[in-house]
Structure prediction request, 210 residues.
Amino acid sequence: MPTTEEIPIAFKPSLENNGWKKLSVDLKALYQNSKDTDITLISGNDKIHAHKIILTARSTGFKKIFHHDEEKAEQNSVNITDVTFPALKRLVKFLYSGILENGENKDMNLQELNDLYSSADKFEVMDLREMVGNTLLERIQVDNASEILILANRHNDKDLKSRVMNFIRLNFEAFSNTDAWEYCALHHPRLAMEVVNFYINKAENNENQV
Prediction:
């Protein structure tokens, strides 16, 4: 019987890591080649050709569309009216590959990130929503904190909202002098009051601990 040298565990290739990477590349190629697609997503004058099985496996939102709406389940196209085409395209690419393109999140402006976050929430792709939320936190400044806070509140993202409010608390003096805060107080008074109460309560707690 031939013998083989035992490979130390530390140097054995990880089938799990290599397998997921290869799967991501193969599925991305499947999407790019548009081979054997059976559903067309229509956004305005733009179209995306995709596979129902991929969309339903990766997105609870798409699963609801195709499985719970018998009429749409038989259709080979769906109109997407409340998501921008760039955000929809990025969302679908993520559903296939599980990643955002290298550096793509850095190239998106704040509005594009907001659109992608909203589309991820709409189609219940929560891992993408979390990734975009973390990118928004990397971009947060006193001038845009209100916008990110309103976004988190609208989509009931308690974790993102809490972290934004903590940023505001730590920079409240500069934050309270921005036009964005004035807009928030005018158009979202309950949220603005929540921010003020959060700041006051934290300040009082700090005083009591001294």
